[in-house]
Fold each of these.
Amino acid sequence: MTDDENRVAGLLLAAGGGRRLGGRPKALLPHRGRLLVEHAAGALRAGGCASVHVVLGARGEEVRARAELPDCVLVDNPEWEHGMGTSLRAGLDALAGTGARAALVLLVDQPGIGPEAVARVRHAYRSPRSLVSAAYDGVRGHPVLFGAAHWAGVAAAATGDRGARAYLKEHADAVELVECGDVAEAYDIDTEADLTHLE
């Protein structure tokens, strides 16, 4: 691993309140004997991210009390109710000044995405201008890597629940797609029906 690769930080967005799940925060959902937030943080770490920042919001104090997140930096997003964009901004703000050259962003509600997909996207990092996305049968998905040169633009464009979607669309020609469909499944845990994915 190069010195620059060592500076790819994991950024886990785990602040949502689970509106469509009856107000159950996704971070606290159980899966294979652990909480979803623990699974996702573990995937970032096992995928090679030297540091992991976790953005918390809904029932943040409970997540802090219950979740085992060793060596993770916990970032509070008091504006979490205004959508994922606020969590992305909070996370990128927290990474500023840490020496990180890129942020590899993963969502807490995608337990089908593990260390293999994280590692593939991280290995595609080349410079602070890198813009990389996992793809599933050619369709862009998560995780996504933003080189530090993009952070200001991503933060400015991150509104509501769209996160970085507008920025990625605007810079589509610069996005390197890394196929991950053979090692990960990109389903979301959004509704009661989706809970069948949890074990």
Amino acid sequence: MSAESAVAARVVAVSSNGVYSFTKPTRESITLLAGLGVEGDVHAGVTVKHRSRVAQDPTQPNLRQVHLIHRELFDEVGEAGFEVEPGKLGENVTTEGVDLLGLPAGTLLRLGADAVVEVTGLRNPCLQIDAFQHGLLKQVVSRDDEGNLLRKAGIMGVVHQGGTIRPGDTIEITLPPAPHVPLDRV
């Protein structure tokens, strides 16, 4: 399935960091490892690596091996006066031309020639976003007209098939069988 926009679905930037830090430096490429995540990234592993999740239960499966954000979010928050660039919100993959937040759980994303990530859920934005830029949290977490919480800070996934990803790589989307399950926080 291709993206339903004029912009082709593609990778804009890739980022990783071997130490805990809110932001992640952009790279020329990253390598995804099946069942683990981004090679050399602090969040790679079979079990949870995010500090808050480790504190709750370090034996939980890591459903947050890869963090993806849509570049279009940067335009949206830019209209409110915020400057955000790839990697600055801690994502591993910055995309363009894909409605990441509208994908159902279980969607498979082929990134480049080989890598395949299964979408597990929404990123649950935390207060570190406000420490990065004061007021930005309100831009990426809001409520709809019915009062439902909207999380816009990207999605999370697990690596099904490893491979190297570079800026400019295409993204192919394979939806799971119906009925589709909307994304929830993971």
Amino acid sequence: MPPTTADATRERIIDAAQECFGRFGVAKTTMEDVAAAAGLSRATVYRAVTGGREELILAVVLRDLRRFLDLLTERLRALPSVPDAIVEGCVDAVTFVRSDPTVARFLVPEAAGHMQAAVAGAAEHVLDLCCEHVRPYFALAQGRGLLRADIEVEGTVEFLFRIITSLIVMDRDRDADGLRTFLRTYVVPVIVSG
């Protein structure tokens, strides 16, 4: 089904916002900058993005997150075990956030105040999106007795989200192998059935 004009306009605006965030930084990008980059009037941009900058920030982050989750889902299918999927999924998520230019722009100190409002409302969207991607594999693994029977996908995804966030924020100078060891030792046993 082809995108509607409204959907195409919104994508054009999100593309322009991503370009402006890269060029000017999150803190200095204005809605006028986005309108100019999109080749649209400010009125059109404000009609399409009623939540203003916070909505644009969230839209850019969620679009990149969807792309990452699609790639991650394909990668995790090829891994031989649930512990491997947990470890490699977490390592990939930490690497993605630290290295993705779009997401990394939001982690610089100048963006913190502007990002805080967007992030405050974004957590539920991010968790829902992650659950949506993980749910089929989670149900299959739990049905096979590979995951603890008393846990649910939402709680597990939230737990992993909190772990990943803390690993991003509190970098302990672990290389990828050190991070894998940490995850296998402390995180995997909480989720995998013993």
Amino acid sequence: MPGLTMATPSESTVENLQPQIEYTFYGAVTAARAVLPAMREAGAGTLLFTTGGSINPVPMLGNVNAAAGAPRNWVLNLHNELAGSGVYAAHVAISTWIGDDGPEGIPAATPDQIAPLYWDLHERRDQPEAVFTG
């Protein structure tokens, strides 16, 4: 993605971490704040958020994985806050490459393989997080 660079944990700096946080975390917060008031008023709705590498981080994505930890924690906490309100929030950790052109040694999956996990979360509404490992 333009403007976003990958860095190992020891190469992570404020300069290469900040854009990751803005993209991954601030985007999630902004999106939720746009729809959450209406969902709360209706007493219904589903918010599903996705990060990769927040469960099984890999060194080449050190700054990306660090930024993914913030929305994961926030969504798990949002899930707890919304309990009993009719609004459901959950986190999906995708610990695989999506598509065919991933790095060697990293498992891959197609969107069609991953999609049922989202529907299952939405339908069951009984867990704060699901992990897709391929």
